[in-house]
Amino acid sequence: MEKQKVIAVEHLSKKFKEATALKDLSFSVQAGEIFGFLGPSGSGKTTTIKILTGQLAQSSGKANVLGKPVEQINENIYEQVGIVTDNSGLYEKMTVYSNLKVFAKILNVKKERITELLERVGLEEHKHKLANQLSKGMGQRLVLARALLHQPKVLFLDEPTSGLDPSTALAVHELLFELRKNGTAIFLTTHNMDEATKLCDRVALLNEGLIVEHGPPKEVCLKYHSEKKYKIQLTDGQAFVLPHSNETTERIRVWMAKDELMTIHSCEPTLEKVFLEVTGRELL
């Protein structure tokens, strides 16, 4: 049974005077799915989020969020939507806890939820700090906690782990997996292809306003796996990268029989290498 389409986009484009930011985008995002919208800075990721959240009007095409055309989005839809972007504002003269308390009241969320989220994003011990005293990473965590207060049906995340240390980023990842399990649709923009590979059910690679490749991360990578090789490490420290061949198969068999094989890995391309191949440019 097909899940509900929470976001549906058909032939979307956006022009700014002479520049075209988005060109004929079509995609959908289902409930309980993490959808990665991937590309370098300036490729159109943030513009797409602004259109889908009613902050910016498209030039042509259609887009629906939770069954409502983006042109008709009003404050009521934000009771079901969470947004984390680079410019998501905080009340700088208020404490971490007070910031969340304000939004909890607006969204009719119990105070216990504040404490739970502060613990999950690693801000419990900083709850009495003023927002303007937080580091960039801590501020990002607070914005994320605020977006998750009301357990939204759809969550827009623009580079959500930028500036976070590895342990906090991992905690954020676990939160996102939990949200997905509970049916939240997550629209994630990032230029971190490793993170996208780990998190996303499907990805779309965006370059200069165009989707140049899309699908589940593993399938996208395997599609461009034209030259099969194996990376091998032996117990004596020797390392090899060998082609897929009968000779390689025999060498591996011998090493295994002598218990000399430490590790073996296939060498399919990463999402970053696929992006480079289909666009001719690196992620910056």
Give a description of the structure.
Residues 7-233 form the ABC transporter domain. The protein has nine helices and 13 strands. 33% of the residues lie in helices and 29% in strands. With 284 residues, it is an alpha/beta fold. The strands form three sheets. A six-stranded mixed sheet has the order 6-7-8-3-9-10, sandwiched between helices. Strands 2-1-4-5 form a four-stranded antiparallel sheet, covered by helices on one side.
Query: Residue share in helices?
Result: 25-40%
Q: How many beta-strand runs?
A: 13
Largest sheet: 6 strands, mixed
Shape: globular
Q: How is the secondary structure organized here?
A:
Layout: E1 5-16, E2 19-30, E3 34-38, H1 45-52, E4 60-65, E5 68-69, E6 81-84, H2 96-106, H3 111-120, H4 136-148, E7 154-158, H5 166-181, E8 185-190, H6 193-199, E9 202-207, E10 210-215, H7 217-223, E11 229-234, E12 239-243, H8 246-257, E13 261-266, H9 271-279
Parallel strand pairs: 3-8, 3-9, 6-7, 7-8
Antiparallel strand pairs: 1-2, 1-4, 4-5, 9-10, 11-12, 11-13
Helix pairs in contact: 2-3
